[in-house]
Amino acid sequence: MLRAAGTGTGDEVIVPAFGNAEVAEAVTLAGALPVFVDIDPATYCLDATEVEAAVGPRTVALVAVHRFGQLADMPRLWDVGRRRGLLVLEQGESEAPYTEIEERRAHAAFLDGRLSGVRTPERGAGHTYQQYVVRVPGNGRPDRDAFARALRAKGIDCRVPVKTPTHRMPAFRRDVCLPETERAADETLALPVHGSLTKRDMQRIVSACNALGGLLQPAF
């Protein structure tokens, strides 16, 4: 799509640094330069205010990536694109059957009401919970990583959703200040909410997480 729009050498394309290195790779393959912009900490998607601030004379496009089943703020991003003359592209996530989405939402609601010691995700309109991503706040040591190891030891299948932001990767390293991206990469952890989980499984997740509260400083 970038190539079809005539994007090429000397052009810049705004992209998120939180995950999705393939988006930056696509920009590079089109001959353009990826410009990394910070995320909205609630949605993990591009922050429209940061996008507008990053627009320069060579900026021709932006790529919004929907994350974890949460939609980017497309009305604001489209508005920025319209006013600044930018091509606005979206990278979506694979669609799941309606019943699977409803099961994930039910499991997410169960966790929202029972987890303590972690920050639960924002319940945005249309959230499909492709991943249920919590925050394990740090206090100067790798609390998220210790928390994840302890959960796995209890048989809970959790994972770090973004281990290295794209702007930290050798192929795309940039000297940019992206505090929300950095914080999210250090604090986020995905807990299981897939449809095959039973109520007993969900209770085990809650019990295991809440029993580890001593690893953490207060979340709020």
Automatic annotation (TrEMBL):
Record's signal peptide: none
Annotated SUPFAM superfamilies: PLP-dependent transferases
Cross-referenced Gene3D superfamilies: Aspartate Aminotransferase, domain 1 (3.90.1150.10), Type I PLP-dependent aspartate aminotransferase-like (Major domain) (3.40.640.10)
InterPro entries recorded: DegT/StrS_aminotransferase (IPR000653), PyrdxlP-dep_Trfase (IPR015424), PyrdxlP-dep_Trfase_major (IPR015421), PyrdxlP-dep_Trfase_small (IPR015422)
Key words, A-Z: Pyridoxal phosphate
Biological process, per Gene Ontology: polysaccharide biosynthetic process
GO molecular function, one term: pyridoxal phosphate binding
Family indicated by similarity: Belongs to the DegT/DnrJ/EryC1 family.
PANTHER family the UniProt entry points to: 3-OXO-GLUCOSE-6-PHOSPHATE:GLUTAMATE AMINOTRANSFERASE, TRANSAMINASE
Protein name, per record: DegT/DnrJ/EryC1/StrS aminotransferase
Species name: Streptomyces aurantiacus
Record lineage: Bacteria, Bacillati, Actinomycetota, Actinomycetes, Kitasatosporales
